[in-house]
């Protein structure tokens, strides 16, 4: 099984003075279902470049998944980690999938901007373009334009960009959450397997 390193959101528990790394168990189930071995990466490791490099060399990731949850404009340890992972993936030609916030992070990394949108939270809509399927939607921000060296794979009917693909690297971004589908959509699984190999 190929090793997939996935990022985690940061949940703040002020009453305990804790910041916890977290991910939905459904994400792990989706990766396992698709045939991958998932490895969560701790956000705090982004502080120390040497330890991060050592961690990556030990795990030997064959793909990265930048997960959803949170706002890509937040400048925290997760933001720092995901940027470092994108640099590492770019230098090593590692496949990357960005889901929701992960797609936003990829786009911002490549020079795009985000804007607030309405009618994209807790609903379903149909995609138009190369990807045509009904998907869930849980995002308050969207890309203002397609990043340079990317192409649009799908938009929503209101024109919001819902999926992108790099023209140079094995990278894609999807604004929906495939792990939240019950059952998992086979189109998403097949697309992931094509991307990650």
From TrEMBL:
Tell me yes or no: is Protein transport among this UniProt entry's keywords. no
Q: Which PROSITE patterns match?
A: GATASE_TYPE_1
The Glutamine amidotransferase domain is annotated at: 54-181
Q: What are this entry's molecular-function GO terms? A: hydrolase activity
Q: Which UniProt keywords apply?
A: Hydrolase
The yes or no answer to whether the keyword Transferase is present is: no
**InterPro entries in the cross-refs:** Class_I_gatase-like, GATASE
Top-level taxonomic group: Bacteria
Q: What is this protein called?
A: Gamma-glutamyl-gamma-aminobutyrate hydrolase family protein
Say which species the protein is native to: Balneatrix alpica
């Amino acid at each position: 099984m190929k090793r997939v390193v996935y990022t985690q959101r940061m949940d703040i528990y002020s009453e305990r003075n804790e910041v916890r790394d977290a991910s939905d168990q459904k994400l792990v189930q989706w990766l396992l279902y698709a045939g991958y071995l998932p490895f969560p990466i701790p956000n705090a490791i982004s502080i120390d470049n040497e330890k991060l490099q050592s961690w990556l060399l030990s795990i030997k990731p064959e793909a990265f998944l930048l997960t959803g949850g949170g706002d890509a404009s937040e400048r925290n340890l997760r933001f720092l980690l995901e940027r470092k992972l994108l640099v590492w993936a770019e230098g090593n030609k590692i496949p990357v999938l960005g889901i929701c916030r992960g797609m936003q992070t990829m786009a911002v990394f490549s020079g795009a901007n985000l804007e607030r949108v309405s009618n994209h939270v807790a609903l379903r809509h149909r995609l138009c373009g190369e990807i045509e399927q009904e998907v869930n939607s849980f995002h308050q921000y969207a890309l203002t334009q397609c990043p340079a060296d990317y192409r649009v794979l799908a938009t929503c009917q209101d024109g919001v960009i819902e999926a992108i693909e790099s023209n140079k690297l094995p990278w894609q971004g999807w604004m929906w959450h495939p792990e939240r589908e019950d059952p998992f959509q086979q189109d998403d699984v097949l697309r992931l397997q094509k991307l990650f190999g």
